[in-house]
């Protein structure tokens, strides 16, 4: 590219890239040339309200390891001219490496002081030698925005990778196929002070945050956040929380989080998925796997925390996910004033045999009516009893002051699709706390040829079983139709473990018979 006058090769300004020489001054000179080349837009008259200059030079960094000891070598806080178009490209991760060896605390390799818009970094590896170093501070009062990072990586020891401040914008940021490795305090950090609800639209495509410790996204001022694919792993003892979404007064439309198709590894108890205090909006995980490290962590470990600070929570949904450990929901004295909307749909639970194993409620200050009702729909568990456990439930409704319930109807047969015969039984588990409202035992006439009496019971697994519904005395070939209304609370392990039992007189299997159990909760 040496013949392209609009492309700067940092080596033409004296950079060595040998991993030994301090190349700070070469980068400072190259960036100064880029700033100087920024030009008034020839098309400015045709763009109403756009008085921004245009960048007219691109920085290229060839293969090599470039040692940087000084801060602000890529962008300087002293440059304040609004300019659209800043592009830096390397030869590829591992090929082009920036080794940041700054020793002054709390300094940034890049400092965009509300100047540059439409920034692109591609194919560069950034390595830091100590945990006091920061990669980028972006301060915006309406200018700095629209960043793209492609095939970049950050490894070593970092404090903040992306630190966003200001009163407006700092939005429209996208990361493609980027990696974060090592010890990283905060991947993307938006504090509550000197930040804005206008910080919006952050998109991560196939990015990996695989660190010994640290938080990936820490947002205290809302945000519209999308994550597609990627791998997120904590492998160190101190771990951290992948997503921190903290509450402050937020404007409408800026509390939305979506994670689709990502894979997580919580290798110890200090690794957490999410800590969410948002009071509105939506949080969704779709087709994500959080269960791969289940064998390494206790099933009682809480890895996700949602808190209602006297207001409603966001709409929370886990759809088609594989989950481990427990999720905790905290509620406060006035949380009952707001409806909550939490659902787990089509999910599989690697360590829980029911909602009571998976959900942990914490009442922070009374008024149990604020306990959120949590819906489980078409979910299943793993383990020895997985095929017998019905996970679907409106969990926590028994305390919620306004609960919308759905009746569940389950059908019970044995493995070959029949009712059992003499000496046989079929065990099944309803959710702990479920209320059985009705049991039907049905068989059309002529379903079997036996003249022996039909003899079936639905009973609990208590030491002295409670009989909830039964058929007896009628010849099996005549069929039967029992419709038993009842009120039975499955509030213990032995009461939730039910059995369809065939009596001693049942001498034929019956494929046309039905045991239908209706429950709420």
TrEMBL record:
Residue stretches in coiled coil: none
Domain Rhamnogalacturonase A/B/Epimerase-like pectate lyase positions: 8-140
Name of the protein in question: Rhamnogalacturonase A/B/Epimerase-like pectate lyase domain-containing protein
UniProt source species: Paenibacillus eucommiae
């Amino acid at each position: 590219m040496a013949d392209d006058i609009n492309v700067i090769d940092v080596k033409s300004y004296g950079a060595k890239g040998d991993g030994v020489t301090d190349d700070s001054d070469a980068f400072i000179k190259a960036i100064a040339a880029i700033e100087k080349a920024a030009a008034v837009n020839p098309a400015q008259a045709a763009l109403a309200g756009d008085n921004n200059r245009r960048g007219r030079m691109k920085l290229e960094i060839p293969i090599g390891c470039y040692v940087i000891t000084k801060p602000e070598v890529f962008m300087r806080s002293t440059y304040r001219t609004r300019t659209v178009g800043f592009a830096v490209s390397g030869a590829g991760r591992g090929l082009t490496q920036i080794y940041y060896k700054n020793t002054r605390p709390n300094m940034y390799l890049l400092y965009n002081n509300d100047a540059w818009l439409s920034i692109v970094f591609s194919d560069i590896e950034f390595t830091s030698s100590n945990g006091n170093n920061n990669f980028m501070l972006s301060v915006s009062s309406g200018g700095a925005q629209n960043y793209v990072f492609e095939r970049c990586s950050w490894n070593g020891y970092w404090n903040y990778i992306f630190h966003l401040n200001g009163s407006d914008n700092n939005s429209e940021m996208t990361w493609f196929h980027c990696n974060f490795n090592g010890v990283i305090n905060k991947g993307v950090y938006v504090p509550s002070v000197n930040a804005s609800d206008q910080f919006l639209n952050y998109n991560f495509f196939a990015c990996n945050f695989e660190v010994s410790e640290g938080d990936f996204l820490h947002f205290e001022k809302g945000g519209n956040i999308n994550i597609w694919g990627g791998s997120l792993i904590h492998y160190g003892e101190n771990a951290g929380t992948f997503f921190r979404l903290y509450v402050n007064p937020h404007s409408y439309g800026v509390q939305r989080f979506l994670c689709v198709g990502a894979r997580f590894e919580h290798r110890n108890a200090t690794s957490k998925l999410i800590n969410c205090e948002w009071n509105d909006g939506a949080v969704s995980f779709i087709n994500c796997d959080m269960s791969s490290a289940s064998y390494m962590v206790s099933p009682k470990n809480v890895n996700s925390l949602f808190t209602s600070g006297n207001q409603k929570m966001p709409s929370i949904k886990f759809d088609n996910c594989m989950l481990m450990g427990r999720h905790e929901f905290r509620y406060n004295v006035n949380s009952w004033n707001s409806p909550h909307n939490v659902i787990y749909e089509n999910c599989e639970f690697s360590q829980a045999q029911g909602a009571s194993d998976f959900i942990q409620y914490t009442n922070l200050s009374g008024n149990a009516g604020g306990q959120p009702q949590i819906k489980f729909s078409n979910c299943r568990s793993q383990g020895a009893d997985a095929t017998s456990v019905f996970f679907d439930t409106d969990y926590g409704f028994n305390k919620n002051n306004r609960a919308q319930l759905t009746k569940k109807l389950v059908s019970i047969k044995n493995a070959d699709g029949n009712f059992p015969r003499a000496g046989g039984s079929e065990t099944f588990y309803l959710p702990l706390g479920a209320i059985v409202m009705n049991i039907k035992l049905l068989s059309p006439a002529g379903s079997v040829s036996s003249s022996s009496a039909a003899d079936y019971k639905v009973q609990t697994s208590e030491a002295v079983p409670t009989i909830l519904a039964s058929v007896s005395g009628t010849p099996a070939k005549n069929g039967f139709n029992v419709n038993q209304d009842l009120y039975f609370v499955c509030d213990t392990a032995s009461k939730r473990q039910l059995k369809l039992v065939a009596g001693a007189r049942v001498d034929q299997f019956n494929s046309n018979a039905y045991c239908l159990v209706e429950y709420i909760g």
